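Session log. Operator J.P. requested a structure for one protein chain; no other inputs attached. Running the standard single-chain path with token output.
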Amino acid sequence: MKKNVLKSLLALGLLVSGFLGFAQEYDVLKDAPAEVKERIAKADEFIAQKQYASANGALGLDDNEYIIYKRTELYTQYFVQSLMHQMFVIKNLEKNEDLLDLRLNYTGDAAMTMYNVEEVIDNFQSEHGKKPILNLALGNFYYDVSQRYGDQWLISFDELRKLAKVNYTKAEEAGLYDNYSLFAMGSIEINDKEWEKAENHFATLVKVENENASAWYNLALTLMYQGRYEEARENIKKSIKFETNEDWKIDEYLLWSDSYLYKDDVDGAIKVLNEGKKKLKNNLNVTFELGKIYFVYKYDYAKAEKEFIAAVKSEPRVVSDVLALIAQTQDWENYIKFIGKAKKLHSKDDEYQGYVGYMAAQGYLVKGDFESAKKELDNAENKLKKAEVYEDYEETFVEMRELCAEQGK
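Structure written below.
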């Protein structure tokens, strides 16, 4: 449900060949000509006002590598419509317009502008030579494409990631990075299980974006993978402090809880999840996780059942996860007991009732109670037919009835 990686100050030394770590404060435009900086500053003013077409005009011609770097950012981050990230609709927004809403519901007829980043950079460097800032632009471009298109672009997701990483590495060797590349490179390194490198990237990012909840979360994640659980907790707390997305806060509380479980501190994990239940409006996953801990680690079925019932009451589909968990322990008495209570929930939901009855029949079959299994199958079939989903189960019903007939003689 969440984001990606991060934490710790720069005590890690050499990350890649020739790269000795990031500076605490860094201006990616520091070597750009004064006139180019002025054009980019003007474009940034328009971007802040959501005047993206005007920002594009303020940049002028692609006559400098830093302008290409900035225009790549403008087209890939502030487009209204994109066709394979090679053609874009860029427009000035009205005060009441939102960029993300426009992307989902755009009905305008603005013409698309061709901007093939790879081609633009290749042509520029053929004339002016290699420019590290364009490696940074390409890294950002390839990573952005990978996140938006996955395997549906001109090359695969894995190839996009590799190209992003190669270009980011070249840029970093020249001392160039930006906030976007820090997050992207850290994310790639987490996927590649390069925990210390990822830690360094996210640790740098939180220095310049102290209230970036995703960065703090991912920093904590890198520390968790390195077994540094206490350090991870401090960063998770910061992630929760700055988080504005309720769904992502769930991930943060679950990671916080895991930091205790991995140290065999079950009570610590329970305390964290109870806090999460109180502070989160949508605490379904936290509630289910709390029940799982009571069931798996504490062997306290009564407390586990209370949490499981609360979770299923909130979301009917969770019942399948609960029943699967109980079945794994072969605790068939509590399995049947839980089903009895689960049936009292969502009484008007025929698909839910049919599914619960179907799972009950399986439990009775395992217990060798074939009469009860047949009754559950009859009731479940009726409910699933009302819900018009019986066809999904029909083959299994036939097999279960045959088993009842054979074994119940």
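Operator note: The CA atoms of residues 336 and 360 lie 7 Å apart.
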